[in-house]
Amino acid sequence: MSTWAIPLAVGAAAAWALGMTAAKPALRSWDGLSYLLGRWVLVALLALLYAGVSGQLAFPGWRPAAMAALAGVLDASVGGILYVTALQRTSAYQATTLSNTAPFWGVLASVAFLGEPLRWGVFVAAGLVVVGAWFLTERDAANGRPSDLAGTLLALAAGVLWGFAETVPSKLALDSGLSPATLLFLFAVSGALGVLALMPLLRRRIPRRTERRGLSFVVLSAVGGAFLGWILWLVALAQAPASILSPVRGATMAFAFAYSVVFLRERPTRRAILGLAFAVAGVFLVVLVV
Length: 290
Fold this sequence. Notes:
Elements: H1 5-26, H2 32-54, H3 62-87, H4 92-99, H5 102-113, H6 120-135, H7 149-165, H8 168-175, H9 180-202, H10 215-237, H11 242-248, H12 251-262, H13 270-289
């Protein structure tokens, strides 16, 4: 395993958290479907440009392309819709934290589907991240509204899909010869097409709304969050087992927690701070055991 894999995964977590936090103000001006579509179209264009400039644009076969497309639909389309819906029903740190139980599901998926060995230290680390997520779910009344069970379940479901998509199909595509840049391009295109396909079913419940003032947050979420985060993650994933990197993804919680407090002025409870400590402990445990 490359010594750069874990730092790259931590960088991906920081970028993803930025994108997920920027989604909160973006969704005040854009509806969820327009936000996701605009986000992934922009990521696809950036990935195509990056792949062309870096010489990574290549097509090794239909199987890895299909894996990249599957990851895009599960993560960017279905998981994305679940997440933005949850984000509109609860606080940014709560929705982000619950969806970031993904490390636990990623470890399980890596062991079950990729045949990677079950390292107990890594499994315990993933468990710490999930415990941290549980503590972080409690809302403080000062945040303006009570907890929402539907929002909680939607965010958790997004975490399950993200954990699987970020490990199994992504790792299989990389191992089959697909470059990180090309994988991200196919992932983003599939994610955008998936949102388009679901629009007729969801548009009645999610009316179109795009205001100019929200555009900067959409761009920030796409460029600083999705594009940068996924490039860093895929490069790391190409250098290390998915089961080891998945708990490192739990660092997204810590970064999202800090971003939501500093930039969104959300006020977490003491219980939430305890949850953050569990999540950070899980990430540090991964570093120690590998």
